[in-house]
Inverse folding.
């Protein structure tokens, strides 16, 4: 049930669900939200790479969007400030981006999508009913904005830049006057 909308100039835009993950990590595992969000992006990158490797026709461009400001900030920061586990995930994500570019695909910068309109989170909020995820639903087809020209999308590069405190290497420098 792909959503098919006509744009202002008669063009068609399609939006479909390729895959979804819904997982909430219990606090007692030590797997906090920033790690979960970054792992979600890594899984998405692995899926895109596997899809591209089997594709006959490659897409012209790829744009990844999410509602985690700290995930986007982590991917775009100087990797020397991140602790090993976070830095390794970020490094693999950047390797995927590089591989896509080497295949001739335009790779857009990560974009922020507002959390209140992030339909992929519907399953983790505990309020979803069968109709919310059924055929033709926003969960299956994506928010209606994705079926419109990019100028109608809620995605942007304007967001608060922040890194998760627990994932930053703390460096102390002691100044000794001479």
């Amino acid at each position: 049930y792909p959503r098919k909308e006509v744009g202002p100039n008669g063009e068609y835009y399609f939006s479909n669900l390729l895959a979804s993950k819904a997982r909430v990590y219990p606090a007692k595992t030590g797997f906090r939200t920033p790690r979960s969000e970054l792992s979600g992006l890594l899984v998405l990158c692995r899926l895109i790479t596997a899809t591209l490797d089997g594709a006959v026709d490659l897409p012209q461009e790829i744009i990844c969007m999410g509602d985690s400001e700290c995930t986007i900030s982590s991917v775009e920061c100087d990797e020397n400030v991140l602790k090993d586990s976070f830095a390794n995930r970020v490094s693999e994500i950047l390797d995927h981006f590089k591989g896509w570019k080497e295949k001739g695909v335009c790779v857009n910068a990560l974009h922020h999508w507002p959390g209140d309109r992030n339909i992929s989170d519907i399953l983790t909020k505990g309020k979803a009913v069968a109709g919310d995820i059924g055929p033709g639903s926003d969960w299956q087809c994506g928010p209606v904005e994705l079926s419109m020209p990019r100028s109608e999308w809620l995605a942007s590069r304007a967001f608060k830049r922040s890194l998760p405190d627990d994932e930053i290497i703390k460096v102390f420098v002691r100044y000794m006057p001479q």
